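Title: Request for sanity check on Uridine kinase prediction

Description:
We are preparing a figure and want to confirm that the structure record we downloaded matches what your pipeline produces today. Could someone re-run it with the sequence below and paste the raw structure tokens into this thread? We only need the token string, no images.
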Amino acid sequence: MHLDALASRLHPLPPSCGPVRLIGVDGHAGSGKTTFAGRLAEALGGAPVLHLDDIATHEELFAWTGRLLREVVEPLSHGTTAHYRPYDWDTRGFGPDRALPPAPVVLVEGVGAGRRALRPWLARLLWMELADEDAWARGRRRDGSAQNEFWEGWVHAERRHFTKDPSKPFADLLVLQCSEGYEVLQGPAATSAKSLSVTDRDGPASVC
């Protein structure tokens, strides 16, 4: 089966944020959220993806809840287009306005996508199942030694966040990256332990 199989489970869900089915993709930094969300969005027919890296800032690694609710969730809940200014991590400033339409399905991916304040608006919460240390090591390799200082601060901040506001216990589905595609398991918030193996259309999944 392809990721279309998972998409077919998400499309019929009742709307959770106005007319939108908001799907959260959470997990540790470096766990593969961005790649997975992109491929799932494709399987969903080109669903919009909101990257929380565009919402967070150096000064607000996790303290962006109010901005997200005000700029994104509230407009979508009223069936109107949301507008936000993506943060540029190089210039340390916000970029031009970006529109996020109230599509039938919208993916929100990033560390903290399953936070307490956002969960009431989610139709489903997916958790990338990769241990924190393994995910962080992969992220460090991806970003190179130039980002070592940033990663030191990030790891501490992420640990604090998930200690105070864990996401995994509330995940509906757990996503494991395999040599070819993904295996999707029922998460802690679900009642059964059935699994669904899904593969990408283009073959083996890349590691991000």
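Thanks, this matches our download. Residues 34 and 100 are 17 Å apart (CA to CA).
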